[in-house]
Structure formats: C-alpha cells, structure tokens
Write a structure and sequence with these properties.
By secondary structure, the chain is of the alpha+beta class. It folds into two domains: about 280 residues, Zn peptidases (Aminopeptidase, 3-Layer(aba) Sandwich), CATH 3.40.630.10; about 70 residues, RNA polymerase II/Efflux pump adaptor protein, barrel-sandwich hybrid domain (OB fold (Dihydrolipoamide Acetyltransferase, E2P), Beta Barrel). Helix content is about 25%, strand content about 30%. The chain has eight helices and 22 strands. The strands form five sheets. It has a nine-stranded mixed beta sheet with strand order 1-2-4-3-9-13-11-12-14, sandwiched between helices. Strands 10, 15, 17, 20 and 22 form a five-stranded antiparallel beta sheet that branches. The chain has a four-stranded antiparallel beta sheet with strand order 19-18-16-21, with no helix packed on it. Helix 1 crosses helix 8, helix 3 packs across helix 4 and helix 6 runs antiparallel to helix 8. It is globular. Bound molecules: zinc ion.
Length: about 375
C-alpha cells in the first residue's frame, strides 16, 4: 500500500504591530484538500486565559496527523490552537487577563463585524430556489464583505482574520471555558437540534439554546447572520451555512490530559460522524441532559460583599428558594443566604471565593425548555 500524501500545512498570519518592537501571529494548522467539503474550523482560547481548548486541540492535532498519514481526511480542517495571542500577552500581577482587551476594556468575544445588512443587500437579486446554491452565494458575499473592511486596530484585525478563516466552514467550534464549570454548550436556535449529535458526543451536561444576539459574539457573527438572512428572504431556501457552537470545556484549570484527551477523541469522532474524517465514530452516546432555553439562565450577583461559602457543588440540581451558598461578612459575623431564583442546575461559578457587592459569582441554568 502506498502512503497517502500528507496534507498538513501551517500558516502564520501576522497581525498589525500595535506597539513598537512587537509582532504577533495567529497560527493556523490545515488538514485536507483546500476546498474539500465538509470544512471544519475549530479555535480555542478566544478568551485567552481559557486554556483547556488549547490542550484539546493539541490532542486532536495528533490524531489528525495520523489520519492525514493514512489518507483519511475527506474534508478540510482548519485549527487555530490559540486564537488570541494579544490576550495571552496580558498579565497583571501574575494573573492572566485574557477576557478583556486592556486597551479598550472590550470583551474579546464581542464586537465581531456585523455583516448582516451588507450581505442582505448584496445577495437580494442572486438567490435561487436551490438552498445549496444560496449558501454558496451568501458565503461569497460574506467573504467579499470581510475583504472590504479597513480595520486598523490589532484586536479588530484579529477578529476579522478569525472570521475570514471560518466564514465558509460547515462546522465551526469556538472552544471556551468558564472559571469553574460543567462541560456545557451554547447554540443558537438556528443550529438546534442539528447540534444534538455534538452535545451527545462531547457529553455536554448543559445545553443552552439562545436566539442569537447583536453583541456580535463570534458565534453570533456566524449563526445570527444565517438566521437573519433566512428570515429576510422567506421565499427562498436559505439553510444555515454552518453549524456554530460554543463548547465550554469546564473550568479554566481543567487542562489535564485525563479530561482533555477524551474531549479531543470525542471531537474527532464527531468530525467522523459529520463526514470530515473517514472511519466509524462508534455509537452515538446518549444525551446527558435536555436542552434548556438561555432565557432561564441566571447569572447571580452578590447582594453583599464577603466570602462565598458554598453548601452545594457544581452539578447540584437546585430548587427555587433553596439556600445553596452564604456570603460571610467577617466584620459583623453575618451570613447572607444566597437562594436559587429558579429550579435548575448550578453549573458554573467564579473560582474566587471573595465577592464584592454586585459582582457576578455563579450561574444557574434554569429548567426552562426551549421554545417551539
Ligand atoms: Zn470564554
């Protein structure tokens, strides 16, 4: 048997120099034949201190190299193992600060280009009765709109480049982590229940389905665009051009191989299931949860300042009114009870156990079914 030609290549995309004497790059690993379908795009650590995805993609890369050597890559795969080299460089007093751009105080996962209006205008006379053709037309329009942008700031160019790498992909995964959390998934309704196999394959313990929002997260820049373009042209078939999901890989410190290697295996199997890689993915695991509407998501803020003393751990099913935590004010020796605002699952919390009054400290996914 002759060995297959290896397709792996590495590209370094240089960002504009923001400060004299510095230069940063986005590294892209590509597998498969350019233009082959399906195309999958995965990146990690857009919030730069959310490290588990970086390790997961390292494990995944090893498997992709093996598949590549055996000629098993059917589609095209682009991996960006660390999507935010700017955020990775931000440290204050030994603490990584990769969620917000310290130049502007903007969340790195907000303010992606909103191309919806521009795309709608360009494609208005080009849509047909063929859904696949329409997807191709819209992808071209998105690509052209991205090329026409004149962003100058390093962080804005970073966002532009990430969209240029991913806008024409069939599968788009944005790997994040919370401070401490169960493995969970955010999906826009336009991609649900299509993403059910992803949720089951990666063993998501919480699936939150939203309607998309105009804060233009990376996910919105994909899913909301497809959703709104379809809504604007009800007389033409416009299927979502991509399945885009945010995979929250537990907590930021959950980088160890016993967690991240199985996560990578699951992503590999999902890519097999979706026809990107040849081979059998095995049986699809049972769902570990019912999908929930993001409407029932409660991010709790502290009613008093003090030390957070939890009585319940992550994964605990809380009942409305249940006291699951106290905030201790050591000066007055008082404990302010924290009660659950809704029946649901305690699924994420900040790792710091000190809260200032008004500060976010944990999240409960309410048992709110998705609409429709
Ligand atoms: Zn994040």
């Amino acid at each position: 048997m002759t060995e297959a030609a290896v397709t792996h290549s590495i590209e370094h995309i240089t960002l504009p120099t923001a400060s004299l004497g510095t230069e940063r790059n986005v590294t892209v690993h590509r597998f498969g034949t350019p233009g082959a379908r399906p195309k999958a795009y995965l990146h990690a650590a857009l919030h730069a201190q959310e490290l588990p995805g970086i390790v997961v993609l390292e494990h995944l890369q090893k498997r992709l190299h093996e598949a590549d050597a055996e000629g098993k890559i059917i589609g095209e795969i682009a991996l960006v193992p660390f999507a935010n080299p700017i955020g990775l460089s931000q440290q204050i007093m030994m603490e990584a600060q990769g969620r917000y751009d310290l130049d502007t105080n903007r969340n790195y996962n907000r303010g992606f280009p909103d191309l919806i209006g521009e795309v709608v205008e360009v494609i208005a006379d080009s849509l047909t009765d063929d859904g696949d053709e329409n997807v191709a037309v819209i992808r071209t329009a998105i690509g052209t709109a991205l090329e026409g942008r004149k962003d100058a700031r390093e962080a804005d160019v970073l966002k532009l480049r990430l969209l240029q790498l991913s806008h024409d992909a069939d599968l788009v995964l944005d790997l994040h982590s919370a401070w401490e959390a169960l493995l969970h998934l955010f999906v826009t309704d336009v991609n649900w229940p299509d993403a059910d196999d992803l949720a089951r394959q990666i063993g998501a313990e919480v699936v939150l389905v939203d309607r998309g929002n105009r804060m233009m997260t990376f996910k919105s820049a994909h899913a909301l665009l497809w959703k709104e373009v379809a809504a604007r042209f009800p007389d033409h078939p416009v299927p979502p051009g991509s399945l885009t999901a945010v995979v929250e890989l537990r907590g930021q410190r959950d980088v160890d191989d016993h967690l991240t290697r199985p996560d990578a295996d699951n992503l590999y199997h999902w890519l097999q299931r979706r026809g990107v890689i040849a081979g059998s993915p095995g049986p699809l695991p049972e769902a570990r949860c019912e999908p929930r509407s993001v409407v029932g998501l409660h991010r709790l803020t502290a009613e008093a300042g003090g030390i957070l003393v939890y009585h319940r751990q992550l994964g605990h099913a809380v009942r409305e009114g249940e006291t699951f935590c106290h905030i201790l004010d050591p000066e007055t020796a008082t404990r302010t009870p924290v009660t659950a605002p809704i029946d649901g699952l305690l699924y994420a919390r900040r790792s710091h156990r000190f809260a200032r009054k008004g500060q976010y400290f944990c999240a409960i996914a309410g048992d709110t079914p998705i609409e429709g």
